[in-house]
Specification:
Elements: H1 4-23, H2 27-58, H3 64-112, H4 116-121, H5 124-166, H6 168-174, H7 178-214, H8 216-224, H9 228-251, H10 254-280, H11 286-328, E1 349-357, E2 363-372, E3 377-381, H12 388-394, E4 403-408, E5 411-412, H13 418-423, E6 425-428, H14 439-444, H15 452-461, H16 465-470, H17 488-502, E7 506-510, H18 518-532, E8 536-540, H19 544-549, E9 552-557, E10 560-565, H20 567-573, H21 575-585
Helix pairs in contact: 1-11, 2-3, 2-5, 2-11, 3-5, 5-6, 5-11, 7-8, 7-9, 7-11, 10-11, 15-17, 17-18
Bound molecules: adenosine-5'-triphosphate.
């Protein structure tokens, strides 16, 4: 059996492999960046060596020409190094931006392919966090953490080699303090990591409160129930915790920093002491001692930074895990084995013994079998929660059935190409969703190439054209978030017009339960009559007029069909149906 440690190493390896895959397309730029970092780290040791030459040769020899030469060399190396750093930062920024650009678009495409149930279960804020802050965190990893890691490692190596070449005994003496850096930094790093995780949790809570209470529906709910003070206090508490945690995180290890500062001054002091002794013995020059001390500072700085990078590296690992976790989720199969083009002669929809459950062992639909005939209206009626919406959601394959089959014409929907299946279905939902744009933009969502005349024809058929024209900006009127500036009836008629523009052979309609005024209802009814004409339509019916007009009515109860027929037939033979009608439309509804 694999131990925990082994499996963590395995995961780490897999993550590194995938990070490498992300960088691979930019290997040339990456190679350049590494070369530049190598050159700048080598150039970085030059000034110390030059100082040694100045002290040991130019000054005692009173050689002004050599002094000018050495100072110029130092200046030139600094200028070259700075110029290279600019280039390197341009390269690493463009590499990281390109990687993020690719990841973001790939992730969006991937999420688009996810099955519908994913979006009904996952927290919406979570998706946005991964698409935004996690991805920008990853950009920081490519642009900061990785570059810092490579550059500090190179600085460390170049300085270490130079020191060893200069005098290995002095080098070892100067380095005795190094282990003292590493161990406590790791400990402080772990404390900071723990605090960072807690901060992240509080930040998510903060986002959740903001998201929920300042979204259009949440805001309304908060106002109606007078919950402003409670919500604002909740946010205050959470943001107070966040700020406390952040203060703790940033001040964690301040004692450690203090001790480290003392230790860093120990190294040079030892060099002065032992180097001074060697100087007195005539074994070493003053220049060498000065060069050593400056190089030592160059050694301590990257060690300190590398130890601090530990926290960033562990954090980055978590970020990558979150991003890759999304990529590993299985998308919905868009096309099954046969990619049949759509050539069904009729568009009869046939449910054959369909069973479905959202959760294991909790069947929602049981042995559903019926035919919705082409050119006819099939109405679904039944108590709330009986499974009507679930039945219609199975047709465009928003959910996959557990057993049985659904055919359109002669084709099993599972063998149809998903985009082509959906292109033949028009969906009018209870709650019409409109994007925050103009009425025209919302209509064009159904058919981007529609002409103005087509739009007008569709809106006339949906009995909404006159209303739109009465608005000061007509079709260019902005509808607000989720179409908040329009009434329920207006929104539904716009959504009918949108489906009319698409003109699919199959229409699925979930009638609004909310009561509309008689005029709105009248217009919607007229619009519906037009919409459903010569289509295969399935309507979740809430209005008596729809039920009466339907060719066939299916009575659904607890996930089963318990009756089928026309309104009159069902009234005669089905007690439950009669009861349902009486409940919904009153005892004396028109027979
Ligand atoms: N996404 C979901 N995950 C889990 N269970 C669900 C989900 N959607 C619906 N259900 C459950 O499935 C059952 C059928 O729901 P469905 O929405 O199909 O009923 P309905 O007849 O359309 O109700 P209504 O008339 O109130 O809209 C209900 O018990 C509901 O709680």
């Amino acid at each position: 059996m694999r131990t925990n440690k082994e499996s963590r190493t395995g995961t780490k390896k897999a993550i590194f492999k995938r990070i490498f895959e992300c960088i691979k397309p930019y290997w040339r730029q990456t190679l350049f960046t590494i070369i530049i970092l190598c050159i700048t780290s080598l150039l970085g040791v030059l000034p110390s060596i030059i100082v040694q030459q100045i002290i040991d040769r130019a000054l005692p020899g009173k050689d002004f020409n050599l002094l000018v030469l050495l100072v110029s060399c130092s200046l030139i190396s600094t200028v070259i190094s700075s110029l290279l750093s600019v280039w390197q930062s341009y390269l690493s920024t463009s590499i990281s931006q390109n990687i993020i650009y690719n990841l973001k678009n790939k992730m969006y495409r991937h999420l688009q392919e996810m099955p519908y149930h994913f979006f009904t279960t996952v927290n919406q804020g979570e998706i946005i966090t991964r698409m935004s802050s996690d991805l920008s965190g990853i950009q920081g990893v490519f642009n900061g953490t990785i570059v810092n890691f490579v550059s500090n490692t190179l600085i460390l190596m170049s300085t270490f080699i130079t020191l060893m070449l200069m005098d290995w005994k002095l080098a070892l003496l100067g380095m005795f303090a190094l282990p003292l850096f590493v161990f406590p930094t790791k400990k402080v790093g772990n404390i900071r990591l723990k605090l960072a995780k807690q901060t992240q949790q509080q930040l998510s809570l903060e986002n959740q409160i903001i998201n929920e209470t300042l979204s259009i529906s949440g805001f309304k709910l908060m106002k109606i129930f007078n919950q402003e003070i409670k919500e604002s206090e909740a946010l205050q508490t959470v943001s107070f915790n966040t700020s406390r945690l952040q203060i703790k995180e940033f001040t964690a290890g301040r004692w450690f920093v203090m001790i480290m500062t003392v230790f860093t001054s120990f190294g040079p002091l030892l060099i002065y002491l032992y180097g001074g002794f060697l100087f007195i013995q005539g074994e070493i020059s003053i220049g060498a001692i000065v060069a050593f001390v400056t190089l030592l500072a160059r050694l301590y700085a990257p060690v300190g930074q590398l130890s601090n990078l530990y926290v960033d590296i562990v954090r980055s690992e978590a970020l990558f895990e979150r991003i890759f976790e999304y990529f590993d989720m299985k998308p919905q199969t868009t096309a099954s084995i046969s990619l049949s083009p759509w050539n069904v002669a009729t568009h009869d929809i046939v449910f054959n013994n369909v069973n479905f459950a959202y959760q294991m062992n909790k069947p929602v639909l049981k042995n559903i079998s019926f035919t919705a005939y082409s050119g006819k209206v099939t109405a679904l009626v039944g108590p709330s929660g009986s499974g009507k919406t679930t039945i219609v959601n199975l047709i465009p394959r928003l959910y996959e059935i557990n057993s049985g089959s659904i055919n359109i014409g002669d084709e099993d929907i599972c063998s149809l190409n998903l985009p082509s299946l959906r292109s033949k279905i028009g969906l009018v939902t209870q709650e019409t969703y409109l994007f925050n744009g103009t009425i025209k933009e919302n209509l064009l969502y159904a058919k981007s190439e529609a002409t103005d005349q087509e739009i007008i024809t569709a809106c006339e058929a949906a009995y909404i054209h006159q209303f739109i024209m009465s608005l000061p900006e007509g079709y260019e009127t902005l509808v607000g978030n989720r179409g908040i500036k329009l009434s329920g009836g207006e929104k539904q008629r716009i959504s009918i017009a949108r489906v009319l523009l698409k003109n699919p052979p199959i229409i699925i309609m979930d009638e609004a339960t909310s009561s509309l005024d008689t005029l709105s209802e009248y217009y919607i009814q007229k619009a519906m009559n037009y919409l459903l004409k010569e289509k295969t339509s399935i309507v979740i019916a809430h209005r008596l007029s729809t039920i009466k007009n339907a060719s066939n009515i299916l009575v659904i109860k607890e996930g089963s069909i318990i009756g089928e027929g026309t309104h009159d037939e069902l009234l005669k033979k089905n007690g439950i149906y009669k009861e349902l009608c009486e409940k919904q439309f009153g005892k004396d509804f028109a027979y």
